[in-house]
TrEMBL record, chains A, B:
Family that this chain belongs to: Belongs to the isocitrate and isopropylmalate dehydrogenases family. LeuB type 1 subfamily.
Described function: Catalyzes the oxidation of 3-carboxy-2-hydroxy-4-methylpentanoate (3-isopropylmalate) to 3-carboxy-4-methyl-2-oxopentanoate. The product decarboxylates to 4-methyl-2 oxopentanoate.
PANTHER family: 3-ISOPROPYLMALATE DEHYDROGENASE (PTHR42979)
Pathway membership, UniProt: Amino-acid biosynthesis; L-leucine biosynthesis; L-leucine from 3-methyl-2-oxobutanoate: step 3/4
Cofactor binding note: Binds 1 Mg(2+) or Mn(2+) ion per subunit.
Gene name as annotated: leuB
NCBIfam families noted in UniProt: leuB
InterPro entries with a match to the protein in the record: IsoCit/isopropylmalate_DH_CS, IsoPropMal-DH-like_dom, Isopropylmalate_DH
Keywords: Amino-acid biosynthesis, Branched-chain amino acid biosynthesis, Cytoplasm, Leucine biosynthesis, Magnesium, Manganese, Metal-binding, NAD, Oxidoreductase
Protein name, UniProt field: 3-isopropylmalate dehydrogenase
EC number from the UniProt entry: 1.1.1.85
Major location category of this protein: cytoplasm
Amino acid sequence: KQIILLPGDGIGKEIIESAKLVLNSVASEYGHRFTFHQHAIGGDAIDQYGTPLPEDTIKACQNADAILLGAVGGKKWDSLPGYMRPEKGLLGIRKTLGLFANLRPVKGFSSLLHASPLKEDVIKGSDILIIRELTGGLYFGQPSERRENGNAVVDTLYYHRSEMERIIDKAFQSARLRNKRLTSVDKANVLESSRMWREIVEEKSKDYPDVAVEHLLVDAAAMKLITQPNHFDVIVTENLFGDILSDEASVLTGSLGMLPSASIRSDGVGLYEPVHGSAPDIAGKGIANPLGMILSAALMLRHSFQMEEEAAEIEEAVNETLEQGYYTADLHIKGGKQIGTKEMTEMVLENLT
Amino acid sequence: KQIILLPGDGIGKEIIESAKLVLNSVASEYGHRFTFHQHAIGGDAIDQYGTPLPEDTIKACQNADAILLGAVGGKKWDSLPGYMRPEKGLLGIRKTLGLFANLRPVKGFSSLLHASPLKEDVIKGSDILIIRELTGGLYFGQPSERRENGNAVVDTLYYHRSEMERIIDKAFQSARLRNKRLTSVDKANVLESSRMWREIVEEKSKDYPDVAVEHLLVDAAAMKLITQPNHFDVIVTENLFGDILSDEASVLTGSLGMLPSASIRSDGVGLYEPVHGSAPDIAGKGIANPLGMILSAALMLRHSFQMEEEAAEIEEAVNETLEQGYYTADLHIKGGKQIGTKEMTEMVLENLT
Ligand SMILES: CC(C)[C@H](C(=O)O)[C@@H](O)C(=O)O
Ligand SMILES: CC(C)[C@H](C(=O)O)[C@@H](O)C(=O)O
């Protein structure tokens, strides 16, 4: 299996190393062969090649079985014009590879729930999978431009029916593998695109009679995620709503640094990255939390390589490490021990059976 | 002063009556003359006149000094086509009257904070004013239609510079009257409209050197509202982001039923409504919480009539009533007494000095 590593910016380099070590260990245990090639993206690529997404990186990713990404962005590149910003690298690779389905599981670790901003009885038992459409909508619709001599501006929310259908299908399929409840989020009382979205969800629901569907307006969803997070099983929504709601959801458990994400397409090729950012303030200090990245590698094994057992083993090893009381600077476990990126990675390696 | 009452649907009729009683009491105390005229909107108007926003209602509102609205919507009208939905009445009146500035204060009541989904040390001290642009953006941009034989769909996010300027000015002015900190929320790493928004905020900030401005991406704002609500003073953002974030913020204090809102234009004419919905399940039972509506009437006195003292008196009376332990079915105060809509209104009237 060809795996492309895109460390990117800030702590990206440090944590991607951890993922590689864990994958190598799994490979030798199960007799798999993973080959790794590293390429530049984001601010790192701007500094080296003058563009956030070099041709060379695109080509390598097009031939890959899966991609691991650390993080992109940082203050250093914030004043560059839009097309030269680190984020463009990320948006470009998603669009070029057609990675239309963004999976964001949100589940707390019992040893870390005490750090949640929510009361324990509110957050307890929450286990949500947010599925966000990732290559359409306002992010890519044209026109997106100034008008009337610079006195007006438009962005365009465009979706083709097929783009909605494939993500909604993905969501129904995912719900089937979980608790069979799907919440579709839209703004059908205002947007025509949401009305079409809702129609398609209704149509598709006939193909998945075993999945219970509900519709929720995006404003109501933003409330319910906080008041009743354990109401949800799978949530599916369009690109921008998904951006906002998945980030909102990511802080509910109190351990953002632990959350993985997958961006995949139908043939199984995918890009995997932790939800947290590049954290330039702690980069190079050896204290970054590698667990979100390691858990992203586990998602890669599950979704791109169908290696369910291997994925579950990594997830268990991470859980065990926390249960043993080890934590990084972004976390805290009462009576536990704070350790750095390398030690944390070693602990996970030890806990892999 | 000419005040139009639009009770609307569900509990709207009951709570608008409470606001009227409170306003009459204030009027006689201070020697003001308020005249009230009641008109139909929303589902109620659909049932009576076959349209969510009758001509007659529009005319009355155009001649009014201020408008009080109960709530619109309900399952009963959910299957009607888009243009015939109760919400269209609300969107129509906002747009027709040019009520571009939606003010949503979020502040907890100490006797109710225990009901917050957030831990007390997280929510304590929060006092946020969200200012949402209300008549532009994706809500009203054209085209908004099906394309390609119904196989595609577009909505349009359109803003004229002047629409951005006036709401941003309003936000700076509001920040000046508060703690002089303004958070502007956008998605400038993706949307052209957000980049123009951010430019205008930067330009305007020169006119308000006493106000400290920060920019926050909408996804980051959705996180920070939960992890650090007391970081914020005034938040300003465009229509759809404001819809999502203000609803998200409204549940943080644990007493949604208490929150008022104002939708105003530059000459001071405004529409005032509680944040909660029409709650059809408890309509007609006499148990609805009238305090969000009563506090909306206070906002009316402050923003449309410049009656600051009168507004503050109502707010104090509400606070006192809670401190005395009275609450409605949607709330709970330990050792207090649950009462109905009428009794709650009477208690507030008694507490008006
Ligand atoms: C960096 C940014 C363009 C990106 C997005 O909005 O999609 C990020 O917020 C994310 O969610 O991955
Ligand atoms: C009813 C709906 C159209 C409306 C909106 O989205 O503006 C509501 O959610 C609000 O926030 O007042």
